[in-house]
Amino acid sequence: MDSPSLVREMPLEVFLQVSSYLTTPDLCALRRTCKRTEAWLFDTFSLEFFTRKQFMLTETSLQALIDISNHPTLSQCLRHVIIGLDNYDYSGRPLPHFSQDAHANRYRAGLADQFTLLSTGQDRDMLACAFRNLPNLQTVGLRDYSSGGRIRDSGQWHSYGATTIFEETGVRLAGGYRQGAIDTDLRYASRAFSSVLYALGQSGARPAAFEVLLKKRGFGLRDYAFNIPNFLEPSVVPVLASLKTLLLGVSLANESIFDTPGANNSPDLESRDFRFRQFFHHTPNLTHLRLNFQNVETSNDEDFLVWLSRPALHPASPAPIVLSQLRRLDIGMLSVAPHVLLDVIRKFQPMLRELSLWKITLKSTDQDRRRGKRVNVWAKFFAKLSDLDHLSVGCLSQLSQQEQQQVGFRPVDSQEDAWGISRDYSRDDMLDFPYNLVRDVLLEWPEGGDGEDESMSDDTSDDYDNDTDMDDDE
């Protein structure tokens, strides 16, 4: 009689704990040893590797997504699909140096395959085919990087197929941007966004969240990415209407048509972000909105926020939006006048419960500049906030008298010397958070600067120019 198998004698929880220390190749090898180990490992394996997966717009990668969607069990697991912006170099520059002819040939073949995939719309058809068979799809997104947080192997979550391409060519595909190819890469990210929306509409999928997470400043989605043609409205608009969460990285850059003489004064010329504004008329059910303005043209960002802050009956083109269910608002990566940002918050304040401000520069007002004093603009801003369940702020700065000062926060622990770059309030400590923020926000003024420091003076709650208190009615 054969001796009993160690696996058969081992308690399931011990077996799973031991398997958690294996590398991914070793874990896959263990799964193939026998049906019992495969059965024991399947649930944890699918949870770790198939609840959320990242793909890219290549035939091999999208075919893997289709294969998963056709699997009777794994298709039920996949809830979060990320489309990485990994792409070959279409900028027209010379190809990178290859150490072997085989690497160069493989890169050229991959570039040709991706070009055909994108130019024929095959990527949209393949995405629609996959989305159609994912009944529990909750979140879809775009990403221009490989996310960290992979505990097993201490690695990153790359787009499916990206590692193989690197091994075969010696070249890591660009994550949606490369130096010297800005226009090409902006078009690629914007096209990918439109393609994913089209595929969702064609598939009938209704995810609750769409996330565009872009790390490179200046490479956000352009205005034309948000265009919804009449032909696509019947399929795409229901997708947008079903969204509860929308996270966007946008680049509302200048276009050459707006730089022609007299263009800015023409009543018939649409705004630079006209389609971006129209887009929000199709997302009435949002509860969480994030706007990261990844662009150096700050005036365009501010113009959009002015439009966003307008009441529903304001005579604007396109008409302002309501977003009556909005509970969380995240704004980041822009320079803006304090009263503009406050107007946005004030508009949504009746329903807003959570607010996040990240990498924002507040510009001092004309009144502050006329005084010639050092004014802590953020202290005045925080004094106007109230009625929130959660507030998160970080990486802030202010621009006064052509000088930019970094903003920090007084250490919570009296034993600490270093300033904090962020501050977070929630639940029980929200009652006193405006006072605490006004008290704790700090600025490092340049040596020898002129003017009296007014950062903690009694008028920190004074209104900004053209601003009213947040408690006032519209």
Automatic annotation (TrEMBL):
Domain of life where this protein originates: Eukaryota
Matching InterPro entries: F-box-like_dom_sf, F-box_dom
SUPFAM superfamilies: F-box domain
Positions of the UniProt region annotated as Disordered: 446-474
Residue intervals of the F-box domain: 4-53
Name used for this protein in its record: F-box domain-containing protein
Acidic residues bias (residue ranges): 447-474
Alphabetical list of CDD domains matching this protein: F-box_SF
PROSITE patterns xrefs: FBOX (PS50181)
